[in-house]
Every structure is written in C-alpha cells, then in structure tokens.
Design a protein that fits this description.
Elements (H helix, E strand, L loop, with lengths): L10 E6 L10 H16 L3 E8 L3 E8 L5 H22 L7 E4 L2 E3 L7 E4 L3 H17 L14 H6 L13
Helix pairs in contact: 1-2
Length: 171
C-alpha cells in the first residue's frame, strides 16, 4: 500500500546569532535572510510555510523539497548569510566583535548546531506556527503579530505575501 508521506517532513528551524548578538536589528541584515530564503525557494530546494526574523535569531517552518537534504539546506542558508554579513561588516569595518578563535573560521555569525524539529502532527505544526508569529509580540515589538514586517503572520491572516516566499501548509 502506498502512503502519501513526504520525503521530508516540515521542520521547525531556529538559528541563533553567535553570542546572542543583535546583528539582525537593522533591516539590511534581515533582508539578507529574506534573500537567502528567496534563493533556496527559487532553486526549488525548500517550501517555506512560516518565518520570523528577530534581532538575534530566526525561526522558520520549512520543508526540504524532493531530492534535497534538510541538513544541506541549513548549511547552505548559514554559509550564504554569513558571507553576506561578512561583506557588509567588512565594508563598515565592524567585524571585530564577530571574531572567534576557531580552527575553521575567523568570524562567527551563527551559533553552531541550530535547532531543527520535524513536525509530524498538525497539532505540533500549529503550536510552532503560533509560537513563531507571536515572537515579536512577546518581545514587545508590536501589539499584533501581523504588524511585524519580518514575519509571515500577515500572510496567515490575510493571504497577502509581499515577499513571494510563502506557500500555504495545506498546498
């Protein structure tokens, strides 16, 4: 009997800035995240259901598409965003606080070993979706989740996706 199970389940993903630094406070750094997600989507590597970009971490609900491994997608995301952060910070001569004493790198932007949890049930999916969208509200950045610009909450409330990144989870 064939069951319609996906090759990869949707995943709740959290990546935190190294040292909990607030690199993502400025929109231009948040836009690097958006650009990386756009690239992954255009390359048919992910389906993105939800996201929020906070000042020192990001949360996504995403799914690796057929033929792609989620660990590779995560690594690609971290590598690309780090390269872009490095470019901006180098131009501003602001790299000093991101220096690390590591054998494999001079600078660190993302904390190692991001959290990824596969979402096997609708109940857990919706719990994580609610968590993502209410993150800016809990942080005092807005009164209503859909007011926060770097989140998919507006899409969930209205169906309007100005980024072109999102796919409804039931699709």
């Amino acid at each position: 009997m064939n069951y319609p199970f996906p090759e990869n389940w949707p995943q709740f993903f959290t990546a935190t800035m190294h040292g909990w630094k607030h690199l993502l406070e400025e929109d231009r750094y948040k836009n690097i995240i958006i650009g990386s997600l756009r690239f992954l989507k255009e390359q048919s590597r992910i389906k993105l259901n939800a996201y929020v970009i906070m000042s020192n971490h990001v949360h996504f609900i995403w799914q690796a598409l057929y033929g792609h491994d989620l660990r590779d997608v995560q690594a690609s995301f971290a590598k690309h965003t780090s390269k872009e952060f490095l470019k901006l910070l180098s131009a501003e001569k602001a790299l000093k606080k991101y220096e690390v004493d590591a054998a494999d790198r001079q600078h660190a932007f993302w904390k190692r070993n991001p959290l990824g949890t596969e979402l096997f049930t609708p109940a857990v999916f919706y719990q994580k979706l609610d968590y993502i969208h209410n993150n800016p509200v809990r942080a005092g950045l807005c009164k209503y989740a859909e007011e926060y610009n770097y989140s998919s909450a507006l899409y969930c409330h209205t169906g309007k996706d100005e980024t072109g990144l999102l796919e409804h989870w039931a699709a």
